[in-house]
Amino acid sequence: MLESGFVYLDEYVPGIRWDAKYASSDNFTGRPVNGYGANRVVIHEKAAEAVKKAQEIFLKDGFCILAYDAYRPVRAVEDFLSWMKEPEDNRRKKRHYPNIDKKDMLALGYVAGKSGHSRGSTIDLTLVRKDTGEELDMGGIFDLMDEKSHTKSTEITQKQLENRLYLRKVMLDCGFTDYECEWWHFRLIDEPYTDTYFDFVIE
């Protein structure tokens, strides 16, 4: 049961694609995360409307949004923090955090102790080509905790930078603000909840 005002992104935005990483083992923890009971992306309706506007622009340019995450239960954030205290098992280190220790993720800003995602108006996404479904080359995967993921990283090619800046421009034009350490992360500026953190399970 969704909290009042929240929607499933795929039901609200025509043609959008999604891959809820934290509902699977394909994330930096290497396992499904607490609070994600289904491969769905949930978001507040106000943010969904802004995503819908962005999707319309991207579609005209031949692209489509691929969403990884939006609303994130508080229990999922707590699960991240607990996982960070566990001994390193190296299952996902090479892919997601090759140059840092998991215990440093919080201090480096890659994991938040209190996430804006839990307020319901933040989204993690990339773009795919509308005709083929091929992901646009952004110079690094979602949740790569590395300086290479900083939007204007000097470790990526000019084309990869252009792709990131294109994504950023459209999202900002549609009412979002970005996070310079993660090219995929955008928060609705006029978010309906600024101090409320939700914990309902995604089902």
Describe the structure.
The chain has helices spanning 9-12, 45-60, 74-85, 93-96, 158-173; strands spanning 6-8, 17-18, 42-44, 63-69, 122-129, 176-179, 182-188. The protein starts with 5 loop residues before the first strand and ends in a 15-residue tail after the last strand. The protein is globular. A hairpin with a 2-residue loop joins strand 6 (176-179) and strand 7. The longest helix has 16 residues, at 45-60. The chain has a single domain, classed as Muramoyl-pentapeptide Carboxypeptidase, domain 2, CATH 3.30.1380.10. By secondary structure, it is of the alpha+beta class. A five-stranded mixed beta sheet has the order 2-4-5-7-6, with helices on one face. Strands 1-3 form a two-stranded antiparallel sheet.
